[in-house]
Amino acid sequence: MVNPLTKLALDIQQEKIGPRLDTRKESLSETVAMQQPASELAQSLPCVLYECNHALQISHVSSNVFELSGVWPKDLIGSRDHWEQRIPREDLKLVSDKLVDFDTVGSASAIHRLIRESGLPIWVCHSWRRSNARGGEIIRGCIVPMENERRVQGVDPVVISRFVHKLGNQFQLLNLVINSLRKGLPDSRETEILQQAVEKSIELARAFSDFSQASTWMSIVDLGEIFRAAYVTKRSSFIEKGVILDERASASLGAVSVYGDPFLLEVAVSNLLQNALEATEAGGKVELGADVEAHQNSVFVAKLAVIDSGCGVAESNLENVFIPFFTSKKDHEGLGLSMAARFIELHNGILKLTSAEGKGTKVEMILPTIHSPGHSDF
Known about the structure:
The structure is a single chain. The relative contact order is 0.10. The radius of gyration is 26 Å and the shape is globular. The chain is of the alpha+beta class. 43% of the residues lie in helices and 24% in strands. Helix 1 packs across helix 2 (28-44), helix 10 packs parallel to helix 12 (262-279) and helix 12 (262-279) packs antiparallel against helix 13. The chain contains 13 helices and twelve strands. A hairpin with a 5-residue loop joins strand 1 and strand 2. A five-stranded antiparallel sheet has the order 2-1-5-4-3. The protein folds into three domains: 4-151, 2-Layer Sandwich (Beta-Lactamase); 155-212; 219-368, Histidine kinase-like ATPase, C-terminal domain (Heat Shock Protein 90), CATH 3.30.565.10. The chain has helices at 4-17, 28-44, 65-69, 82-86, 89-98, 102-105, 148-153, 157-181, 189-212, 223-241, 249-253, 262-279, 336-345; strands at 48-52, 58-61, 107-115, 121-133, 136-145, 219-222, 244-247, 257-260, 285-295, 299-308, 350-356, 360-368.
């Protein structure tokens, strides 16, 4: 019996190589001869092919899945929760939204991240199509890996739109105040409001400029040094507020290095520390931890965590925490975590956040390393 994925490739091959064979006249020898190159074609395509049911439970997947996506076939076939485990929470909502009209349209597609076996992300273009096969209805999927750099270098137009909207609100206020001042009250409340609006506009412009910047200088970077620099920069703020900062990550990392922009990496770590500080009351504690994991093919991954004992994040907000300009804090612009996430993505890494409201938050930074490290403890 022909494997379903080989059959799919066989269909492609027949369309490209020659006219479709008349199945009534096709001999067994012709079928066998066609199966071999079709199987080779299926494995050489720069994409992962799979079949699943309406619950998205995979029954067949092409054997190149680990090579292209870093996920083992055994972790996909038959599993009911592999999508929740392999797609980041904030991307899972996008995928779910794309599949809402699937029953009506019969096809869907989305660009999102998959978490590889190493814990690092890979951007993929994911498509689904409903098909009839073997006397029933199935779903066939195709996953095409994308280059991370091209996906995260540009700023999403939706982000720009949100920024322009916020900036426009400030200038609308300016126009109203200026019109009022024209009536002549030199020392008035309006003058103070005008000054505050101008300062707010400047802050927004600077924050967005910081968020949208790309790397300008890449080099071999010592992760321990990055953590120590961020720690020194933020230490006085922790002391002033009365929050304990337990820094042990730089010692745990040893001589682990990454290839990246030291400035952007330090900004990312500093933003995580600032977010933890703002969430933690006086007398609370923020811990910095680190670990290095070894994976297949001598791949080493650095995991750095910032753990606070603060107020935590509401369950309903968890999928939005990395969205630019989303915030539940008063007088905040909502760019701290999203900026850190963007800068880590520029280094082919990912931020993961877990939180319990009223108990605290853990933000984990996962980055690929370029040097084989020694043993370390989290």
